[in-house]
Design goal:
Layout (H helix, E strand, L loop, with lengths): L2 H9 L4 H16 L9 E5 L6 E4 L15 E4 L14 H13 L5 E5 L2 H7 L11 H4 L5 E4 L9 H9 L5 E4 L3 E6 L2 H24 L5
Parallel strand pairs: 5-6
Antiparallel strand pairs: 1-2, 1-4, 2-3, 4-7, 6-7
Helix pairs in contact: 3-6, 4-7
Length: 211
């Protein structure tokens, strides 16, 4: 390795590949209109235990998230919210709890895409298997029906419990969440979850009987 190459390597932030991939996920979420401006959060674990993770900084628009600006957080660090660059409190509560409790949740994407959120707002939020995309999620989704406000404390812990055996959640009156082994798999699930919700919501809008 040349001195110049070594110098460049030393300047790279920790976990560069994960940073680049997660930043891409934010940019694509914005392009697909899955975002809520500066709200919602994506995270990815970077240590074997899953307790250290990258997440978007507070107040950053999805379309402008940079790899170098992603926060490196430790789910076991209770002083996180005292940092000068502390994350959004709801993001820390939910993503911190998930990464602390579930090592299998390597990447966690929480969003409020239009059709997934419409489905989450119905009394029956099941994603019925009416086409190939919808069938992909059959028996894979947890539905949280006890939304009571921002995902702090009890709200976060309840979601964590429901994701012990499932990796995808429709958060009643709230939005959706996917957890997967990789950023690519999580984003693929998020994309097809929204496409599936779009199909089901469109079918409901016809007023006709479902096949």
């Amino acid at each position: 390795m040349t001195a110049v190459a070594a110098s460049r390597t030393q300047r790279l932030p920790q976990h560069q590949q994960e940073r680049v991939e997660l930043a891409c996920a934010f940019r694509w979420a914005a392009r697909l209109n899955f975002h809520e401006s500066v709200a919602n959060h994506f995270s990815v674990a970077v240590n074997p235990e899953g307790t250290q993770f990258l997440m978007n900084p507070n107040g950053a628009h999805f379309s402008r998230v940079r790899a170098s600006e992603l926060l490196l957080l430790d789910a076991e660090d209770p002083s996180t919210m005292q940092r000068a660059d502390a994350p959004d409190p709801t993001a820390w509560a939910l993503h911190g709890a998930l990464h602390r409790r579930h090592a299998h949740a390597r990447c966690v994407l929480h969003a409020h895409p239009k059709n997934g959120t419409i489905l989450a707002s119905l009394a029956d939020s099941r994603l019925l298997p009416i086409d190939q995309n919808c069938a992909r999620f059959f028996n894979r989704i947890a539905i949280d029906e006890d939304f009571s406000g921002m995902a702090l404390g009890e709200e976060a812990e309840r979601c964590v419990e429901q994701l012990a055996t499932k990796r995808i959640m429709i958060m009643g009156n709230h939005g959706v969440l996917v957890a997967a082994d990789s950023i690519a798999q999580a984003f693929d699930d998020l994309y097809y979850l929204e496409r599936s919700a779009e199909t089901l919501v469109g079918a409901y809008m016809t007023g006709k009987k479902l096949r």
